[in-house]
Write a structure and sequence with these properties.
The complex is a heterodimer.
Chain A: H1 2-10, H2 46-49, E1 57-64, H3 70-80, H4 98-103, E2 110-117, E3 133-140, H5 148-156, E4 160-166, H6 173-184, E5 188-194, H7 203-214, E6 222-223, H8 235-242, E7 255-264, E8 268-277, E9 280-281, E10 285-288, E11 294-296, E12 299-303, E13 307-309, E14 312-313, E15 318-322, E16 336-339, E17 357-363, H9 369-382, E18 387-393, E19 397-404, H10 407-421, E20 425-427, E21 434-438, E22 443-446, E23 460-475, H11 479-488, E24 492-498, E25 503-511, H12 512-515, H13 519-526, E26 532-543, E27 545-552, E28 555-556, E29 562-565, H14 569-583, E30 591-597, E31 600-607, H15 624-638, E32 640-643, E33 646-649, H16 650-658
Parallel strand pairs in A: 1-3, 1-4, 4-5, 5-6
Antiparallel strand pairs in A: 2-3, 7-8, 7-16, 8-15, 9-14, 10-11, 10-16, 12-13, 12-15, 17-19, 17-20, 18-19, 21-22, 21-23, 23-25, 23-26, 24-25, 27-28, 27-29, 27-30, 30-31, 32-33
Chain B: E1 44-49, E2 51-52, E3 64-65, H1 86-101, E4 112-119, H2 127-141, E5 143-153, H3 160-168, E6 173-179, H4 183-189, H5 195-207, E7 213-220, H6 227-240, E8 244-249, H7 257-261, H8 272-288, E9 292-295, E10 298-300, H9 307-313, E11 319-321, E12 326-329, E13 332-335, H10 340-352, H11 364-375, E14 382-383, H12 384-391, H13 393-409, E15 412-415, H14 424-432, E16 443-446
Parallel strand pairs in B: 1-4, 1-11, 2-3, 4-5, 5-6, 6-7, 7-8
Antiparallel strand pairs in B: 8-10, 9-10, 12-13, 14-16, 15-16
Helix pairs in contact in B: 1-2, 1-10, 6-8, 12-13, 13-14
Classes of the chains: A alpha+beta, B alpha/beta.
Domain Tr-type G (chain A): 55-247
Keywords (chain A): GTP-binding, Hydrolase, Membrane, Mitochondrion, Mitochondrion inner membrane, Nucleotide-binding, Protein biosynthesis
Binding site for GTP (chain A): 64-71, 140-144, 194-197
Chain lengths: 663, 453
């Protein structure tokens, strides 16, 4: 973020009005628009966009803890400006992915351009026909820390953010993380205390929290209810008055930031861009700073709220570009696109994706490797933050080792693979990148436990594991159990404060390994769902780590190997083995399931052989029933992975993911 | 615990001659169906007599429950002069019409070698009506010189006179549905008879002159059945000295009373391990008593295999008549309607000539699957050479490859022409050389349940 902030500082407010030879008459561009609410107009003329110099543009995003009302607020703003019709279109307009709607989260950035008249006095704009019109770009960003990479890209195109806090729930863990992201990006922050219509709303308390935690002046907070509409009319005026207009040189060659891209079957790659300097016209030749490739701008326009061609985008404006890119691979998110044949300084400072959680992804049916490969390729086109390398498992065949930003990211990636690409996936136990140092001084980073030799033949001198700083906010009565949970997870307390009379804030350094599986669920369950939790990456710490193998009939199953803390090996081993016993169906022979560290078996279960009922009476030679039974078993087999002679159902792999570290 | 998918089961040492001699390839060769001879015409007929006094709690077969009135056994009912239950008489008329409307597969009159009256409870049908059916079969298809004619009988539904009468008609094999030797278990199954009737029935059957061949049916894995009970049932069975024993494992079917009450493997049903153990115990006890375990659920004294059932395991064709019955003719399996009204309508269509089999054979893989599935039920096993002739080399190879790990683990036994077991390494060699060198694999069977390896 530091880089982005630096970029913003260095280029701040360099708008040169002279670049726009606009007559006085054109100071009121809204007259050219048919009305303030103009969703039904066929398009927006490029000449209209020209009437919005940077000083008439505001780029902002909304940040909030999950369920604090971000998407509803976005819907209301889109309605208020007539960008979408009230009651039309689906709620959570900007959350377009199924996974986003189902989980109530935002995963992919979206942008929407709105037009809004505003006069710099207290009178409503509707009473002032001469009030100037503003072009407002809402850049929707993911809220979860896993997506801070996406957030950083989106925030880099913004100058301000609406920090939405639920009036009853107050500041929550994600609020804190989001605030700091915005703060570090040097954005103007407009605090919005939302859902004030709730009976339990306590805006004064929330104001006090904002003051205590973020040093936000209580008078700055706007009180709204996106549900009833109360207070909403103050929001856009505040955006215009408090958020600076985008910096940028209007007379420079065009330079823009690639915010996101997606592939459209009919139109090819569509890039969301923020024009930082200059202007972009249809027909322009542009180049990618990352790849050096050049393209012709075939179409350009704004999202109003859908693709609306304008033929041009000016400095500070946000919109889309279609340029004949064949694959979204060419559209690297965070890349700088610029005028071809000119050398420009690439826009600085995107936090590179840091992969903290790794998991092997394998086709559920071994023969579907190509299909999975294709699905992953397509999805990674839209999600550059996933790292993908091919790997081969003796147990699962050909697959991929994928690196994710975090657990939610991994989950969402899975869900999108299945929902949007119909892929059937088996994933291995997620792992974190460990570092092992051997006696001879060599070091390896281990992203796949299977790759670590069980008996390396050389002494391991030291191991390191990544840690996180976790922020947990809970009602004070749950402090005891939460402290217990954190210490079970090898946590180290960093901070223990009260944010108000009822709520405590705990900060812990926790090994990432300890939170990637079921920490959040456990936390939620011991706090009756009241805890909120967020974390940021922290440094590596030295740890006593061992590789644990799972053996079926004496054969190690590489895809089930895991790295655990030495002291926990026994417990985790026993649990894994018990779980496997439950999910591996009995087969035609006895199966021993073992967990072993090196050559030492630490847990063992035996699964007795199975009976298949072929002994039922075969009435009058009617063998169809017996065939049905076999067909059923054959169906079952399809969901199996054969490891050596043992068939393992997919569920067994899924269930292993759930095995906790501590219980 | 069983070691085998199809825990079959011959207690014959593999060098001894097998109980069932294989016939020519049982399925129609597909590769050149235009030129190859059609499959042998049926020499077996199954006749469904669906009447029962009441439905047993595990049963989901097409039956007609007559009510308890039929359970009383007025001695005179077995003799002529009485008015038959119209439901039975009507059904038998329908059956006779079906027999008459069924065209024999071969014109040169291959006579029936086996007839099986199954149910239901065929012993509830007055012998006079059974005779009518037998006569109709004889008239339509012919009966061989010494056919096997079996009938299923339930304790409490016949007396010595009725049995004599049936034997007089030419019935020479009885399958007695005993199921269990515990009063409580019989009641729990919803059987229409008690233990005393079981003993009475065994007495009648063993005392019947002219009837040497009879079988006893048992069911294992009944609710609350213990190992002791099972041992007791097997002991009683051996003591009764039937020539044949069928041991079936209880299958919980949807829509039955048991289906509503119980979950397989969950108390009061025995666990899978216990069920498997019952199976092993049966195999052990019956083998000790001199019965050959010739098919997965069938045991017999030497020479007393059920010839009718053997046609099923050899995938040979057979006629079937009656409600819900399944026939296998010209490579086509067909199940008749399970409801009486629809069955009657179907018979009408058959008579009008407006019904024909849905066209087409089942797929080749399906047929191969039948052969594998059925032959692996038998101690004889799968005849690899004949399978290869019928289905081709490549399917045979892929089949053998499938068996490879199980030959290695001992679950499957590969044998040569002399039925000598091959070492896994020999089998491997055979696979690698496309069966051209080394010892030839002639048979594949599943290993016995009691062997530890």
């Amino acid at each position: 973020m530091a880089g982005a902030a630096a970029f913003r500082r260095s280029t701040r407010r360099v708008f040169r009005p002279g670049a726009y030879a606009l007559s006085r008459a054109l100071q009121h561009p809204e007259r050219l628009l048919s009305s303030q609410a103009s969703p039904d107009r066929g398009g927006v003329l490029g000449s209209e966009l020209g009437l919005y110099p940077p000083e008439r543009i505001r780029n902002f995003s909304i940040i909030a803890h999950v369920d604090h009302g971000k998407s509803t607020l976005a819907d209301r703003l889109l309605e208020l400006t007539g960008t979408i019709k009230k009651g039309h279109g689906q709620p959570q307009y900007l959350d377009k992915l199924q996974v986003e709607r189902e989980r109530g989260i935002t995963v992919k950035a979206q942008t929407a351009t709105m037009f809004y008249r505003h006069a710099n006095n207290q009178l409503p704009a509707s009473d002032q026909p001469d009030a100037p019109s503003y072009l407002l770009n809402l850049i929707d960003t993911p809220g979860h820390v896993d997506f801070s990479y996406e957030v950083s890209r989106s925030l880099a195109a913004c100058q301000g953010a609406l920090l939405v806090v639920d009036a009853a729930q107050g500041v929550q863990a994600q609020t804190i993380a989001n605030f700091y992201l915005a703060f570090e990006s040097n954005l103007s922050i407009i605090p919005i205390i939302n859902k004030i219509d709730q009976p339990t709303a306590d805006p004064d308390n929330v104001r006090a929290q904002l003051k205590r935690l973020f040093d936000i002046d209580p008078s700055e907070a706007l009180l709204t209810s996106a549900k009833t509409g109360q207070g909403l009319s103050q929001v856009l005026p505040a955006v215009i008055e408090r958020i600076p207009s985008p910096p940028g040189k209007c007379d420079s060659p065009v330079r823009m930031l690639l915010l996101d891209s997606y592939y459209d079957e009919y139109r090819g790659v569509i890039c969301h861009v923020a024009v930082v300097d200059g202007a972009l016209h249809k027909g322009d030749k542009i180049a990618s700073a990352a790849t050096g490739r050049t393209y012709e701008v075939l179409d350009v326009g704004i999202m109003h709220p859908e693709l609306t061609p304008t033929g041009v985008l000016y400095t500070g404006q946000v919109g889309y570009v279609i340029s004949g890119m064949r694959s979204t691979k060419e559209a690297r998110i965070g890349d700088t696109l610029h005028q071809a044949k000119s050398t420009v300084e690439p826009l600085p400072g995107f936090k590179p994706a840091r992969h903290m959680v790794f998991s092997g992804l394998y086709p559920a049916d071994g023969s579907d490797f190509d299909a999975l490969s294709h699905a992953i390729e397509k999805l990674t086109c839209n999600d550059a933050s996933v790292s993908v390398t091919k790997e081969t498992s003796t147990a699962l065949g050909m697959g991929f080792r994928c690196g994710f930003l975090g657990l939610l990211h991994m989950d969402v990636f899975h869900q999108r693979l299945e929902q949007e690409h119909g892929a059937q996936v088996i994933s291995t136990i997620p792992t974190v990148p460990y570092i092992f140092e051997y006696g001879d001084g060599s070091k390896v980073q281990v992203e796949n436990p299977a790759a670590l030799a069980s008996n390396p033949g050389k002494r391991i001198a030291a191991c390191w594991e990544p840690t996180v700083i976790a922020t947990i906010i809970i009602p004070s009565e749950y402090v005891g159990p939460v402290i217990m949970l954190c210490s079970e997870r090898r946590g180290e307390q960093q901070e223990y404060t009260f944010i108000d009379a009822q709520r405590a804030l705990l900060k812990y350094r926790l090994p990432l390994r300890e939170i990637i599986v079921d920490f959040y669920n456990e936390l939620k369950s011991i706090t009756s769902g009241y805890a909120t939790f967020d974390y940021e990456d922290s440094e590596y710490q030295q740890s006593d780590l061992v590789k644990m193998d799972i053996l079926l009939n004496g054969q190690p199953v590489d895809a089930m190997a895991t790295i655990v803390h030495n002291q926990k090996a026994q417990r985790v081993g026993r649990e894994l083995v018990e779980k496997l016993k439950k999910f591996i169906e009995r087969q035609m022979f006895e199966i021993t399931i073992q967990a072993a560290v090196g050559s030492k078996v630490i847990a063992r279960e035996t699964l007795s052989a199975m009976r298949k009922n072929v002994l039922a009476k075969c009435y009058g030679g009617d063998i169809t029933r017996k065939k049905k039974l076999l067909e059923k078993q054959k169906e079952g087999k399809k969901r199996m992975k054969r490891v050596g002679s043992v068939d393992i159902p997919q569920e067994a792999f899924h269930e292993l993911l759930k095995v906790s570290n501590s219980k | 615990m069983l070691r085998s998918a199809f825990p079959l089961v011959s207690h014959l040492p593999s060098h001894k001659p097998p109980p069932i001699r294989p016939r020519p390839p049982p399925v129609r060769p597909y590769a050149s169906s235009a030129v190859s001879p059609p499959p042998p015409p049926p020499a077996s007929a199954y006749v469904h007599l669906p009447f029962c006094r009441k439905r047993c709690h595990y049963c989901d077969f097409p039956i007609v429950a007559l009510g308890t009135s039929a359970s009383s056994l007025p001695p005179q009912s077995t003799h002529g002069g009485d008015v038959d239950d119209p439901r039975i008489a009507d059904y038998v008329r329908l059956l006779l019409r079906e027999v008459a409307a069924t065209r024999p597969v071969s014109d040169d009159g291959v006579p029936l070698e086996t007839v099986f009256f199954g149910g239901g409870t065929p012993s509830l049908v007055p012998p006079r009506l059974v005779a009518a059916v037998l006569d109709a079969l004889r008239a339509r298809f012919g009966l061989s010189a010494s056919p096997e004619v079996s009938i299923e009988m339930d304790p409490g539904t016949f007396d010595a006179a009725k049995l004599r009468e049936l034997v007089g008609l030419g019935i020479n094999r009885v399958s007695l549905g005993v199921q269990a030797f515990q009063e409580d278990l019989l009641r729990a199954c919803g059987r229409a008879h008690g233990l005393q009737e079981v003993h009475d029935a065994v007495g009648i059957v063993t005392a019947c002159e002219g009837l040497q061949n009879w079988s006893m049916d048992l069911i294992s894995s009944l609710p609350n059945q213990t190992e002791e009970m099972w041992e007791e049932s097997l002991r009683c069975t051996v003591d009764a000295r039937p020539t044949h024993v069928s041991v079936y494992d209880l299958q919980i079917e949807q829509g039955t009373k048991f289906g509503q009450l119980y979950t397989p493997g969950v108390y009061p049903l025995p666990s899978e391990t216990d069920s498997a153990n019952f199976y092993k115990i049966a195999s052990k006890r019956l083998s000790e008593a001199g019965y050959n375990h010739y098919e997965i659920s069938s045991y017999c004294k030497t020479g007393y295999e059920c010839k009718h059932n053997v046609t099923y395991w050899q995938n040979r064709s057979f006629y079937a008549f009656g409600l819900g019955s399944a026939s296998y003719i010209n490579g086509i399996r067909f199940s008749r309607p399970r409801r009486m009204k629809e069955y009657a309508e179907w018979v009408q269509k058959l008579e009008n000539g407006t019904w024909s089999h849905e066209s087409g054979n089942s797929g080749i893989k399906d047929m191969a699957m039948d052969v594998v599935m059925l032959s692996l039920r038998t101690a004889w096993g799968l005849d690899v050479q004949s399978f290869s002739k019928t289905f081709g080399r490549s399917l045979t190879e892929s089949l053998c490859n499938t068996f490879r790990p199980f030959v290695e683990s001992g679950l499957v036994v590969a044998m040569d022409m002399e039925r000598r077991a091959l070492q896994p390494s020999d089998f491997e060699l055979y696979l690698q050389h496309d069966g051209e060198n080394g010892s030839r694999v002639a048979f594949i069977r599943l290993s016995d349940p009691d062997v530890d390896y």
